[in-house]
TrEMBL record:
PANTHER family the UniProt entry points to: BLR5678 PROTEIN, D-AMINOPEPTIDASE
Gene source species: Paraburkholderia pallida
Taxonomic classification: Bacteria, Pseudomonadati, Pseudomonadota, Betaproteobacteria, Burkholderiales
Protein name, per record: S58 family peptidase
Family: Belongs to the peptidase S58 family.
GO terms assigned for molecular function: aminopeptidase activity
Amino acid sequence: MNMQPFPPVPHAGVLPSGPRSSIADVAGVTVGHCTLDEGPIQTGVTVLHPHPGDVYRRKVPAGATVINGFGKSVGLVQVNELGLLETPIALTNTFGVGAIAQAQIRSAIRANPQIGRDWPTVNPLVFECNDGYLNDIQALAVTAEHYEIACSNASVEVQRGAVGAGRGMSCFDLKGGIGTASRVIEIAGERYTTGALALTNFGRLPTLTLGGVAVGRVLAKRSASGDTHATKPEHGSIIMIIATDAPLDARQLKRLSMRAAAGLARTGSVYGHGSGDIALAFTTAWTVACDADLAIRPQILADARLDPLFEACADSVEQSIVDAMWHAVSVTGRTGHRRLSLHDAAPDIAQLIDGVRL
């Protein structure tokens, strides 16, 4: 395992990052992980809080895009119908979705006992990727306790790499995981921050592109499995969460979420048949009270002003994917299956990005 300090993550695009270069640069957003690292159990839970309050009582405007629907998430139907989040956003493995959704429901009921009786039910929101190559997914190891631990660990200091839901994930036949980035823009004299967090579990090594450089071709040629890499289909999934403090409505947030596909494509994905590629965007600029008769919202940006946000979304998603691979460590899991980290597979990766031109 490469224990040397990593060189800086390649910067995508020309827009500047926020101070942490993470989704937590959007004020109020925090992220927590619970990581399970026990032999064949290589999995976990990641929870993103859009604000520090009760999300059921202060619902958050949101919109989602299903780029390729080979996925088993919970809660997207209502998000796309009502344009609101009413729980924190949870990420885990495919077979952990039910346990985490139930944990979200129980947490909301503890805070609001009227839910499901005098008040409407709650819409849990859980996204997933299949970590079954490294993790014994049939063990159903993820439980409600792990959701609570991830919530209690929520912080503006976002851990990256093979942590939380990203522990058992693979990306471009190397180690994937959790990555994050942010961009700062100006619209009509106002500064706004857009951040992304990605759970990466997709791709084929020969198509890996970092900083616009097709380094995957070089790494595939070096690999003893080069021929297999060249012919295997693209499987896996990616979940991309985009946060912004720009005043947008749910329709505009859906448009913003669609631009995550541009950042994903830059890294070499073709959204293969067996890949579940989903993006969700939300804003912290305003909330909707659960008992409101009239939703009070700020003035919303005109659609013609959204291009800088679209650029910030694409750039921060691209860098989040690279960030996940850049910070991941090599992991050995179920039946000896192993994924090398990007740095273990290519100790000269920074030089490759600077020097390869194909």
